[in-house]
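the two lines:
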Amino acid sequence: KAGVTQTPRYLIKTRGQQVTLSCSPISGHRSVSWYQQTPGQGLQFLFEYFSETQRNKGNFPGRFSGRQFSNSRSEMNVSTLELGDSALYLCASSSEPGTGGGGYTFGSGTRLTVV
Amino acid sequence: QKEVEQNSGPLSVPEGAIASLNCTYSDRVSQSFFWYRQYSGKSPELIMSIYSNGDKEDGRFTAQLNKASQYVSLLIRDSQPSDSATYLCAVRMNSGGYQKVTFGTGTKLQVIP
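prediction for all of em together
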């Protein structure tokens, strides 16, 4: 079956702009979690969506938001970009929230560079 | 105290040796534990999950869990250069009434031919 699809793979944006990232989970998976990965902080939890509802949110400012559609595809949005938002953004797909059905399957990620 | 702690390494082992990767966690009631492998420039991939105290073996990999000590480890037997990667420990824990998965910062493993 198809894996987790994240688009775009790479993005370069300037400070102050906004960006939208997309994630399509594995077919049949209804849970999508988003993580930010940086060399210093590792994988930091952003939020989790299950059946179009945000179930949990990490400690990120309100500039970071997300949503999930009825087909389980998810988007995350970052407004008023800052240099510190430069990171790899990873989407994780699972059959149940909080990986109740086992571990995550990750997408290839979106590499965001803010200049 | 970090919720999930790992030694960042690098951990260097010769080819054919046993690599031992360790992880401690803070939430005593955590129930699910995972090991992911991440090659440079790639996304993490799940290699082991463990839910009960004791050992779980899968090929050259053995996960060990000790809930009393809040400790989980990953052993890689007969290490190969292709095992060189960063290994991430992940713990499913309660957060505000929901479950979330928290990752350690990872241990970089280098297998020397």
